[in-house]
């Protein structure tokens, strides 16, 4: 399945919001069966503020023993005759909507938690909460509209299909969009009547733990949703290898995706949905209707969330006739980007999520310099504390450079030059990834040629990174399998 989108930029009204600079951390334990627990092992791990590298709070660390308890609770909640299994489908939708109402009530607090925990600017974390509300509301409406069909088979028989819930679903979510990714996992699973064991990323557990309290407040029965903070190699691995988990939905790195598929094969052949990395190409033809608009779409698509987005347009192929002007405009846009305190509503870019990610991005920037790319701006740390990196633009990038091949996950733009359509299509597809792509042109024939040729799950035309809850999302090749939403 491939998603094609011909859309323009949308600017919706934003309600007034107030960032809580030092929000009270109300929950640090493991949430199982609608109750709070310390970890069986007694271990804890730090949640770190990426703006200064300091520990915010210590969180109870889940591992296999805690996962076993959560899966048992989920299986009990899923038993035939349980309050969850016998609940009217329409009532499931009402429960989800009660939860979204609580999200709306506590929106600024939840967004403030994610700003503190991830370093993402407050305006953006507010948008993430709003997006999660939209996704969950959408799936609430699907609860009583999931139907089968009758099949006119041969013989004196009646045949029909019935869509049934899978069972216990493991949901492993990333740190870059904590609320959005949680909603993408929970919405479809709950609408279909499943139970969930959710593991938030160890870098950003705070909002998921607070939401756990809202699941109970909304009225979800015990065991339907369980939240287990912890590390991937322990808690995440225990979920993927568990014999009583029926499906795992994962968003994260391709490397970990390989491990999850192997774990599914070693255990009970559980179903797996993977949404993973990308090295998404954007092609700018010389006949682009508005070059400045194309520059802005590529800039925001890449620099959003400090470049920490799986579908960021990290390879921008620009026709040689407009290449120099595109580079100049991109540099101008990058140097004006406001980097700083994510709680300040004027800030556009915060830090990378942690020291490991910071070092990885800086290493790849250094490789770009060493391999001969031209550094137009940025390329260095911003400030003297935290994990901030200046918006970076490289020109004269060639396909063999590391920055053109590896997923950077940072505010680093690569601009490559091309001559012909056939050439750029081949180069755009020359990657192990296939999550997203885009083309900018006023020629519908060129656009459709690229749409058909691009090996990517989503292809945008004259825009970038516009996703909605009504459209599926996922990749080709090693960017994943299956579809979200």
Strand-helix topology:
Layout: E1 3-6, E2 30-32, E3 35-37, E4 44-49, E5 54-60, H1 64-77, H2 89-105, H3 107-118, H4 122-140, E6 150-151, E7 159-160, E8 168-172, H5 178-191, E9 195-199, H6 206-218, E10 225-227, H7 232-241, E11 247-251, H8 254-266, E12 271-275, E13 281-284, H9 291-303, E14 315-319, H10 323-335, H11 355-370, E15 374-377, E16 392-395, H12 402-405, E17 412-418, H13 421-429, E18 436-440, H14 444-453, E19 458-461, E20 480-481
Helix pairs in contact: 1-7, 2-4, 2-6, 3-4, 3-6, 4-5, 9-10
What does this structure look like?
The protein is built from 14 helices and 20 strands. The protein is of the alpha/beta class and 485 residues long. The strands form five sheets. An eight-stranded mixed β-sheet has the order 1-19-18-13-14-17-16-15, with helices on both faces. A six-stranded mixed β-sheet has the order 10-9-8-11-12-20, with helices on both faces. Strands 2-3 form a two-stranded antiparallel ribbon. Strand 4 (44-49) and strand 5 form a beta hairpin. The longest helix is centred in the N-terminal third of the chain and has 19 residues, at 122-140. It is globular, with a radius of gyration of 23 Å. Residues 6-13 have low confidence and may be disordered.
């Amino acid at each position: 399945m491939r998603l094609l989108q011909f859309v323009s930029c949308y600017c919706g009204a934003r309600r007034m919001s107030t960032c809580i600079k030092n929000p009270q951390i109300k929950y640090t334990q493991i949430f199982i069966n609608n109750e709070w627990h310390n970890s069986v092992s007694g271990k804890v791990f730090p949640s770190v503020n990426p703006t200064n590298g300091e520990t915010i709070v210590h969180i109870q660390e889940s591992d296999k023993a805690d996962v076993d308890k959560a899966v048992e609770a989920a299986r009990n909640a899923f038993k035939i005759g349980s309050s969850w299994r016998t609940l009217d489908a329409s009532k499931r939708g009402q429960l989800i909507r009660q939860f979204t109402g609580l999200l709306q009530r506590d929106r600024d607090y939840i967004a403030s938690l994610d700003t503190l925990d991830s370093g993402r600017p407050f305006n953006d974390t507010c948008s993430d909460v709003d997006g999660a509300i939209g996704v969950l509301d959408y799936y609430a409406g699907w609860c009583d509209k999931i139907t089968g069909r009758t099949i006119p088979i041969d013989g004196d028989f009646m045949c029909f299909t019935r869509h049934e819930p899978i069972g216990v679903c493991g949901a492993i979510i990333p740190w870059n969009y904590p609320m959005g990714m949680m909603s993408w996992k929970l919405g479809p699973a709950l609408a279909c009547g499943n139970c969930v064991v959710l593991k938030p990323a160890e870098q950003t557990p705070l909002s998921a733990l607070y939401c756990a309290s809202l699941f109970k407040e909304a009225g979800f029965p015990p065991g339907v949703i369980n939240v287990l903070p912890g590390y991937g190699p322990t808690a995440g691995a225990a979920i993927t290898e568990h014999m009583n988990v029926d499906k795992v939905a994962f968003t994260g790195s391709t490397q970990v995706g390989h491990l999850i598929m192997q774990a599914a094969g070693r255990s009970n052949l559980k179903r797996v949905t993977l949404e993973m990395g990308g090295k998404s190409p954007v092609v700018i033809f010389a006949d682009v209707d508005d070059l400045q608009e194309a520059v802005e779409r590529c800039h925001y698509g890449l620099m959003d969330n400090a470049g920490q987005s799986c579908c960021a347009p990290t390879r921008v192929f620009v026709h040689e006739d407009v290449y120099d002007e595109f580079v100049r405009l991109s540099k101008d846009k990058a140097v004006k980007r406001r980097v700083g305190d994510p709680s300040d509503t004027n800030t556009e870019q915060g830090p990378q999520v942690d020291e490991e990610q910071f070092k990885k991005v800086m290493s790849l920037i250094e490789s770009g310099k060493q391999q001969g790319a031209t550094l137009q701006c940025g390329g260095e740390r911003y400030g003297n504390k935290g994990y901030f990196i200046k918006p970076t633009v490289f020109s004269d990038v060639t396909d063999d450079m590391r920055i053109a091949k590896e997923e950077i996950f940072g505010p680093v733009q690569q601009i490559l030059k091309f001559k012909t359509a056939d050439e750029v299509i081949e180069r755009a597809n020359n990657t192990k990834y296939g999550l997203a792509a885009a083309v900018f042109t006023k020629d519908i024939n060129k656009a459709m040629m690229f749409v058909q040729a691009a090996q990517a799950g989503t292809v945008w035309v004259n825009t970038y990174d516009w996703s909605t809850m009504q459209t599926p999302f996922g990749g080709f090749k090693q960017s994943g399998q299956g579809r979200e939403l």
